[in-house]
User: What shape does this take?
Amino acid sequence: MLHILWSIIVGFIVGLIAGAIMHTHLGLIGTTLLGIVGSIVGGLIARLFSRPAEGSTFHPAGFVMSIVGAIVLVFIVRMFT
Assistant: This one.
């Protein structure tokens, strides 16, 4: 349960930073979702460069890769809109 709460808090902070860099104005929920999904995208990008530990299903993105993932996500959404 604490892991979910921590993911929401970090996702909000990552979403705020990525939104400020990309000049995107989202609400509280949108910013949080941007950060959480950006963390997943950042983990997928990190997986291209290094393999996660054996037996783990996800690559831990880290704070910087989460921000990069959120920026990439905003960029892709802007390409299609």
